Amino acid sequence: MGKNSRERHRAKQKAAAHAKRRSHSAGAPIVGPADIPAQHQPLAEIISDALRARQRRHAADLKRCRTLLTDGPGGAVGVQTVNRTLFTALLREVRQAWERGWQPAELVRMARREHTARHARQMVDAIAAQMRVYAKATVEPRWQAQLAALDAQVWWDHDDHYVDVWGEQEKLDRAAAIDHLLDLMHLLKSLPPIEPTGPMPGGAQQIWQASPSRDTDVDQRMLDRVRALLAKAESTDFPEEAETYTAKAQQLMARYSIDHALLAAGSGGKDKPITRRIGIDNPYEAPKTLLLQVVAEANRCRAVWMKRFGLTTVVGFPADLDSTELLFTSLLVQATRAMTALNPRPDRYGRNNTRSFRQSFLTAYASRIGERLNSTTEEVDREMAASAGGANLLPVLAARSEAVENVFAAQFPELTSFETPISNREGWASGRAAADRATLQGKQAVAR
């Protein structure tokens, strides 16, 4: 039995013991994410008051509401009622965040970013509970992949006891456990609408059955091969071996992207740009985002940084988005390895300047990679246009670039640009040198 399974088994034992202590009916169903019943309206008002007090930083009002929720009306049964009402309210906020465009992995990421890893674990539980009402066939593959990566599963026996058994598992008292739920509800309420990147659960079945425009099995096999090649290229200590792996990956990616473009154009298919979001974590968010932007543009995609949320939205055709994600991930691994291998000298006053060095290093790295990618892209375009049957390629690519620009402009009509400050010349020079040594693991380098 693995570690996660053992933890879930212990949690279920605790839940069962807790249920026995509370003497709830053995036949009581699991409470789903339905709206709060009318008889619980007073509790709903207390929760609303607590969230308003938290928003306005009214400590006394928040403490009063927390006490009412912690104690519960009428003993054990009242505590269970509070638990059910709190958890149902949390699930409703999760559902509404999905309706505003947010995805499961993004909600967990925001919980960790704004609060703690413990909040993130509770967000995973809320997502698992909310997913109970959707048939798997109505959940699109990228959502399913996120849920699998999060290991989102319902491990507790009854929603009426989730608050308490979760607190026991996290070694928190009841008041602290309730505070965590209120934190998550406040966070979810504060998230603004963002561009949907696919259908939310319940709406994917018709879309995926009616529009089988991509051979997803073939695509997945090819992408798995590319990922395996890139992993070997990043892990080897021998440059010649890395070049062999990346050359094969580049060849696969080039065929993948161009084949999709020509197939869509030749068949009159309705292939069109879509939106994805990629998380960018601290430290050094700005230069990492710059690297993603230059990779996206070289792959005929457009990217914009949502600084508050640590997310970058990328617009492009599916095959080009796949190339962007794979290439960005590989180059970031190479940049990080090269950066951490260097020990910057103290400045003339003897101060540690590691942070400014690394900020400048990554900025220079991204800038130089962008130059290399754009140069190679232009070379590939010229060679492909001159090859047999290449006369139709450039108009097809131009049309796709225009389609991407139109979708991007519609989503982001007003953008603010920024400059990443450079304060360390040694870091800048080292970053450009590292970029010159980097292997361009994607479709751009195939014609080199």
Automatic annotation (TrEMBL):
It comes from the Bacteria. InterPro entries: DUF2786 (IPR024498), DUF7168 (IPR055592). Residues 289-390 form the DUF7168 domain. Residues 1-24 have a biased composition (Basic residues). Residues 1-37 are annotated as: Disordered. Residues 221-260 form the DUF2786 domain. This is DUF2786 domain-containing protein.
